[in-house]
Amino acid sequence: MLSRFRHIAIATAAVVVLVACGKKEPPVAPAPAPAPVPAPAPAPAQVGVTVSSVTLGRAVGADKKVTASTETFAKGDTIYASVDTSGSGSATLSARWTYSKDGKTVPVKEDTATISATGPATTEFHISKPDGWPVGTYQVEVATDGKTAVGRSFKVH
Amino acid sequence: MSDMPDFSNVDSGSSSTAIKIHEVKSGDSLSKIAKQEYGDAAKWPLIFEANKDVLKDPNKIFPGQKLKIPPLA
Q1: Fold observed for domain A48-156
Q2: Min Cα separation A29/chain B (Å)
Q3: What is the mean pLDDT of residues A31-46?
Q4: From residue B57, how far is each of A33, A44, B50, B54, B63 by CA, in Å?
Q5: Measured between CB atoms, does A156 come within 8 Å of chain B?
Q6: Contact check, Cβ <8 Å, A116/B17
C-alpha cells in the first residue's frame, strides 16, 4: 500500500516537473532601440567676409589694431583705420577717405586690399601727407566688395 | 579756382592679419610688390616662398597672376 502511494507521488511529481519544464514563457521582446537622437545642426558657416568694426588711431600694433583709439588728429599724424572682419573667403576691402569743408566733400585717397580670410581678421589702412593735413573734418568709408559697411568721421586740428 | 586743399601727395597703404591677394600688373616685380606691401623690397623672398605653387622663377611673374601676400610675423 505504501509502495503504491509512493509510486503515485513520484508519478505526480514527474508530471508536475514535465509540465513545468514544458511551460513556455512568452518571449521577452527586446527593448526597442532608442530613437536616434538627431545630431545638433552645425552652426551655419558664415559665408563671405563682413566688416564688424572700424577703429581710428595714430598707430597700429602687429595685430593691426590701433594702439589708442582717437578721432582727433594733428597735422603731421599718420591716420590709421583698423578694420575688423568676420567670416571667411576672399573679399576686397576698400577705404575711401574724404575731406569736407563748407558743405563740399572732396576725395583724399582710396585704397583697396583683397584678402583671403579663414576667420576673424584685422586689416589696417593708413594715410599720411608729407606737408601736413589741412585742418577740417574728414571721413573714411570702409566697404566690402563695393558695399559700404562702416563710416567714421574724424577731425584734424 | 577751387579753395579746397590739394591731396595729390597723400601716401597710403594697407596690411592685414589675413593673407592678402595681389594681382600682378604690368611692370611689377617681386621686390616692387614687397616694397608696396611691406615697405621693404628686400622681403620679396617671403612672397616667392608663399607662391611656389605657381612661381618657379622669382624673375618670371605675369600680369593677372594673383599672388598670396603672407602677413609679416
Answers
A1: Coagulation Factor XIII; Chain A, domain 1 (2.70.50)
A2: 60
A3: 56
A4: 63, 41, 13, 9, 15
A5: no
A6: no
Domain extents for chain A?
48-156
Beta-bridge mates of residue A128: B11
Residues A61-87 pLDDT 10s: 999 999 999 999 999 999 999 999 999
Averaged pLDDT, A23-29: 52
Nearest to B21 among A63, A116, A128 (CB): A116
* pLDDT tens per residue across span B33-43: 999 999 999 99
Contact A52, A150 (CB under 8 A): no
What is the nearest CA distance from A143 to chain B, expressed in angstroms?
14
- Residue spans of the domains in chain B: they are 30-69
